[in-house]
Amino acid sequence: MALDFDTRFEPAYGEAIEVAPGVRRVTVNNPGPFTFHGTNAYIVGTETLAVIDPGPDDDAQFDALMSAIAGRPVSHILISHTHVDHSPLAARLKAETGAKTAGEGPHRPARPLRIGEINPLDASADMDFVPDIILENGAVIDGDGWSFQAIHTPGHTANHLAFGLQGTGILFSADHVMAWATSIVAPPDGAMSDYMTSLDRLLERDDRIFLPGHGGPVLSPAPFMRGLKAHRKMRERAIVERLKVGDRTIPEMVAAIYRDTDPRLHGAAGLSVLAHLEDLVARGVALVEDEPSLDGVFRLG
Known about the structure:
The protein has helices at residues 59-69, 89-97, 192-203, 221-244, 250-257, 266-282; strands spanning 17-20, 23-27, 40-44, 49-52, 74-78, 100-103, 133-134, 140-142, 147-152, 161-165, 170-174, 209-212, 286-288, 298-300. By secondary structure, the chain is of the alpha/beta class. It has two domains: 17-228, 4-Layer Sandwich (Metallo-beta-lactamase, Chain A); 231-300, Arc Repressor Mutant, subunit A (Orthogonal Bundle), CATH 1.10.10. Helix 3 (192-203) packs antiparallel against helix 4.
């Protein structure tokens, strides 16, 4: 199916907006080309609460969350992944509420860094977060009137989790699946093969709605995810076609494939092409001198 992105969204900064029974969204005022209108934090529960992805260490966001919490106990702070727009405020919120943090683990690249390689995405990573509770795939956290199942969804980052609110059909999809745009998959933080496998993992479920880390809800998750898979396969075919016509470098491919894309996003597009090329090289579809990299020279396998 063709992807139909939904960019309708009212962030209502500083307000806790009810998006489902017992679920409220508080959006950080950090809009940008990669965050859309801002990062969504979610507060779940009515008596003892859980907070998902409190956001960056931002005074206004902290005040908005504390206002919405309104003196009630918070037992858990769930972290989907360790990018600086999602997890840093957890430390301050934990200190204030005494809640335990939970996540897949500290930040790490999706593959080992090669000799001399510097991760260009380190500045976007929260290297300080270490969860109190380590969540493996399928782990369950029970609270006061709510229960979450953690689903390991690497791709955007190696430690990315989605959280299923059990018995409701609601899944908090963070940055893996969003209604407004495709997720960034950028090596070495992320990996395209992991991303596609994670889509299949979510497609095995029967969730009725996704509440993402940016933008509004995904109302028909299964067909939307099938569209995401088709979109990635289309990008892969476009890269193979560029190799067939003689392109050998990522900048050449980006200039052709993303010619109608905002130039501010071409850096991220280059990393996305690299993610596809890493996968294509691993499968023998493409070849490269030495290892796949942003300045690599590629050819068809």
